[in-house]
Specification:
By secondary structure, the protein is α+β, with helices and mostly antiparallel strands. The protein is built from four helices and ten strands. It has one domain: Aminopeptidase (3-Layer(aba) Sandwich), CATH 3.40.630.30. The longest helix is centred in the middle third of the chain and has 15 residues.
Length: 165
């Protein structure tokens, strides 16, 4: 599966495709998306990974995995290299995940993010996601998360958002 899109901000060609090969090469992106090595180790090799490629280099990734809910897929990990952000790459990856899901008969796409991550909540809602539920105290030491503040808010709760495909 290949997707070719033009980023609306930079007008440089961006290719979105399924990642083939070892996910070790994407470890820095997984670590960018999630602070817990324990959590990453538990899901890193699941599902499929879409990568955004510009000028032959991977500039972002999106991992999509099956969900326990019927006809639902989950965006488990999404990251774009810091120097490439705000150029439409994350939105292109979400768009590609929607196409991927529809082609496989999914009706819903879900994603989880920290309640304290205001930029992530804004991003997902701009893509059409809506808040579904909150999991209180998700970001605990037992799950491998260190005490942290994001945007002046203590990292504690996880927000689950969904998008009808």
């Amino acid at each position: 599966m290949n997707f070719s899109v033009v980023s609306s901000y930079s007008m440089a060609m961006l290719q979105i495709r399924l990642h083939e090969g070892s996910r070790d090469t994407l470890q820095h992106l997984f670590a960018e998306a999630d602070d817990s090595e324990i959590e990453i180790a538990a899901y890193r090799d699941l599902g499929e990974v879409l990568v955004a490629v510009r000028d032959g280099a991977i500039v972002g990734h999106l991992q999509i995995v099956p969900s326990d809910a019927p006809a639902t897929l989950e965006v488990k990990s999404l990251a774009v290299h810091e120097q490439c952000r705000s150029r439409g790459i994350g939105a292109a990856l979400i768009e590609a995940a929607c196409v991927y899901g529809r082609e496989r008969g999914a009706e819903t796409l879900i994603v989880a993010t920290a309640a304290a991550s205001i930029p992530a909540l804004q991003f997902y809602q701009r893509q059409g996601f809506r808040i579904l539920r909150v999991i209180r105290d998700f970001y605990s030491r037992e799950r491998g998360y260190r005490p942290l503040e994001l945007n002046g808010i203590t990292l504690r709760d996880e927000v689950i958002l969904d998008l009808a495909l």
